[in-house]
Every structure is written in structure tokens, then in C-alpha cells.
Write a structure and sequence with these properties.
Its EC number is 2.7.7.18. By secondary structure, this protein is of the alpha/beta class. It is built from 6 helices and 6 strands, in the order E-H-E-H-E-H-E-H-E-E-H-H. Helix 2 runs antiparallel to helix 6. The chain is globular.
Length: about 190
């Protein structure tokens, strides 16, 4: 089985994430997309980061109607901060019959070289890269294990969604209805 791994804080998950995941599913040979909720991203620090189990719950609600989408809390059980290579190695050992590939935004491709053991990720796993506006020049586009994905460029960000919530504005259409509902009930991001 081939699995595309979509790592993120998903703070909160939104329609942009889901559209990208569907584009990867449509354009590649992956059987499933796993949304890997990161408890702590070593490249991001945020005071507004919702508790990891709440973010996982939001992801599970967002993807519940798509049999090809799964949530993963694997990084909750690993040392922190979470490094993608460590998670990939752990998943490969735990699921030897599965082939994993990382899903990455084009805007992060050049920064990808600063990731722990990025060459190992490229050589043993590979990348599906989706557009995030104008993709920066990078020699990594030429790597045999980097595949460009065509997807709509949506300027939806979790930061914008959190700002809307804090200002009492609607987030309808930015997030799935189930996510909007849970955020309202639990008063997340206020």
C-alpha cells in the first residue's frame, strides 16, 4: 500500500488541506493520505497552538467522510521536537508493507534542505510537492523522487482562521462544517 503523509500542526485543519490531499490522491498512486498531527514543529513556535488531542479530533472530524483519509497521532508518542525523518523511520519499521511519501508545499522546498537528514527523506521516501503561490527556484525540483502536484493555490491559512474566530467572524466555508461546529462548541481559539 502506498501512503502519502501530510504532516502539519493543523491548527485548525481547513479546506485548503483537504483540497491538497485530494489532489495528491487524484494525481498519484497513493492509496491513502495520512494526516500526521505534529505536536511540536521544530520550525514553528506558537502560543496559539491548540492541544494536540483537540487538533487530532478536529482532523478526524474533517476527514470522517473520506475512506482514503486517515489521521495519525504517531508523533504524540515520539520524542519532541518531532523530526520528520524519525517519524518516517518509525512508520516504515511499524508498517513494513507500506510505502510512504511526504507531501510538502512548494514554498518549503528550499527550506527542506535544513531538515534533519533531508537527503535520506529524498532517497528513501520522496516528496509530492504542491504549489503555494510562486514556487521558489530549487535544484530539488530535478530530484528523481520529487513529484510536482497540480493543485489550486488557495490563500487559506490557519492563522487567518484563528484571527476570524478571535474577531467574532464566521469561518464558514474555510473549514468543514464539523470542524466549525466543534470549534464553536469548545470555544477554541478565543
Amino acid at each position: 500500500m502506498k501512503v502519502g503523509l501530510f504532516f502539519g500542526s493543523f491548527n485548525p485543519i481547513h479546506q485548503g488541506h483537504l483540497i491538497i490531499a485530494q489532489a495528491v490522491l487524484n494525481q498519484t498512486e497513493v492509496d491513502q493520505i495520512w494526516f500526521v498531527v505534529s505536536p511540536q514543529n521544530p520550525h514553528k513556535k506558537s502560543k496559539s497552538l491548540l492541544h494536540e488531542f483537540d487538533r487530532l479530533d478536529l482532523v478526524e472530524r474533517a476527514i470522517s467522510d473520506n475512506y482514503a483519509f486517515k489521521s495519525s497521532d504517531i508523533e504524540f508518542k515520539l520524542p519532541r521536537p518531532s523530526y520528520t525523518i524519525d517519524t518516517l523511520v518509525h512508520l516504515a519499521e511499524r508498517h513494513p508493507s507500506m510505502e510512504f511519501k511526504l507531501i510538502l508545499g512548494g514554498d518549503n522546498l528550499e527550506q527542506f534542505k535544513s531538515w534533519k537528514n533531508y537527503n535520506q527523506i529524498l532517497d528513501y521516501y520522496g516528496l509530492y510537492v504542491y504549489p503555494r503561490g510562486e514556487d521558489p527556484a530549487s535544484d530539488l525540483w530535478e530530484h528523481k523522487n520529487v513529484q510536482r502536484i497540480e493543485a489550486p493555490v488557495l490563500h487559506i491559512s490557519a492563522t487567518y482562521i484563528r484571527s476570524c474566530i478571535q474577531q467574532g467572524q464566521s469561518i464558514k466555508y474555510l473549514v468543514p462544517d464539523e470542524v466549525e461546529s466543534l470549534i464553536a462548541v469548545k470555544k477554541f481559539y478565543l
